[in-house]
Structure formats: structure tokens, C-alpha cells
Amino acid sequence: MDNDSMNHIQRASRRYRWLFKVLIVCVPVFDLLYWASFNHLPEGFMINLPVVPAQDLSILSLSLAFLASLLPVSVAVYGLVTLRALFKLYENAIMFSADNVRCFRRLGYVFISWVIANAAF
After folding, report:
1. Is the pLDDT of residue 26 over 90?
2. Cβ-count burial of 80 within 10 angstroms (0-12 exposed, 13-18 middle, 19+ buried)?
3. Class of residue 106 by CB neighbours under 10 A (exposed 0-12, middle 13-18, buried 19+)
4. pLDDT of 50-73, one tens digit each?
5. Contact 77/114 with Cβ under 8 angstroms?
6. Which residue from 1, 69, 77, 104 puts its CA 20 to 30 A from 28's CA?
7. How far apart are alpha carbons 29 and 47 in whole angstroms?
8. How far apart are CA 62 and CA 68, in angstroms?
9. Given this model, what pLDDT does residue 16 score?
């Protein structure tokens, strides 16, 4: 691989690593904001409930819903942490190593866990 290609990969990897770093913080914050403003959202906004609430949910109900939503959120955050580690390896020009294999293995487990966590939620 020539030096220009490697520099391009490293620059792109740096950008993706920073994107994942920002998303690691934003995903849980957006989940908290979603549940904190749930009673004020327009009807049908990003949710598929089997039963539409007839009245505003209590603070306890919203807190419990937020806690339940942390399961898929934590799986997503772990996936973002793993992606950040993988792109840090790419940024350091480490393409084929045992660490890369570990990252890909973890990502496989993240996808399996994501399906299970979303099926449970």
C-alpha cells in the first residue's frame, strides 16, 4: 500500500474515531432527553407502543422506561467503544493484528446482543 493511501486511511480513521467518541456521549444523553420529554412529544413520534397512553406518564413510569431503555443503549455504546478502538488501530496504521481480530469479534457479539436487547425491549 502506498503512502498516500495509508495517509488517507489514517485521516478518515481519525475522523471516524472522533465521531464515535461524540456518539458515545450523545446516545445516552439523547435517550435521557427522549424519556424526559416523552409527555410533550407529538403523537407517534419515534415510538411504536402496543398501547397508546391516554394520559401523561408519571415520573416513575418515565424513569422505569428510561432504565429499561438503557439495555439496548448500553449495547450500542459498547459497540461504539469497540468501533472507536478499531479505528484507533487503523489510525496508527495497524491493519492486520490480533487486536483488530478482537475488535471484530466484539462487534460480532455486539450485533448478537443488539438483536437480543431489542427483542427484549
Report:
1. yes
2. buried
3. middle
4. 666 778 889 999 999 999 999 999
5. no
6. 104
7. 17
8. 10
9. 96
